[in-house]
Amino acid sequence: METNFFFIALSMLFFLSGLTIHAQKSDFSGEWKLNKEKSVLADNQLFLSGITIQLRSDSMLTARVYENGNGEQYPFQENISLDGKDCKIVIYDMPRTSAATVSGADKSLMIASTTTFNGNNGPEDMTAKETWKVDSEGKMLTLEFTNKMSGNETTGKYYYDKVK
User: Fold this and answer.
1) Burial class, 156, CB count within 10 angstroms (exposed 0-12 / middle 13-18 / buried 19+)
2) Is 18 helix (H, G, I), strand (E, B) or coil?
3) What confidence tens digit (pLDDT) does each residue in 99-124 have?
């Protein structure tokens, strides 16, 4: 009888600790808007002004809105698996390949993408590496990025406030 109680108590302990670990997982899901006061925006470049994320166990659906300095917006949706496999879409006649992984250590989300567009000398690739992190309260999303194109590299860090 004592042995049964011990195994039941031990099972409950594992179950409760599993719930705690699950509750500590970063929640990227929701609507996020760029905090322009905290973020440094480069002149004459598109920037990610907002993103809506639906995170699932094996993939995520994003609705990104890029904006230029004149306030013109360029939205697109992308569904990316979280297992590092390439996912392909076409955005405004430009092929894009993206791959995403989740880091178990710091609960960050890493996305690597290549978008091909027609430049002055024909097809050209813009590669982007993004690392997303959510703060402990789930109210601030940080996006660190490195973009490479035509031998130029741009790095930065944007901050997003959770809207819903």
Assistant:
1) middle
2) helix
3) 999 987 788 999 999 999 998 889 99
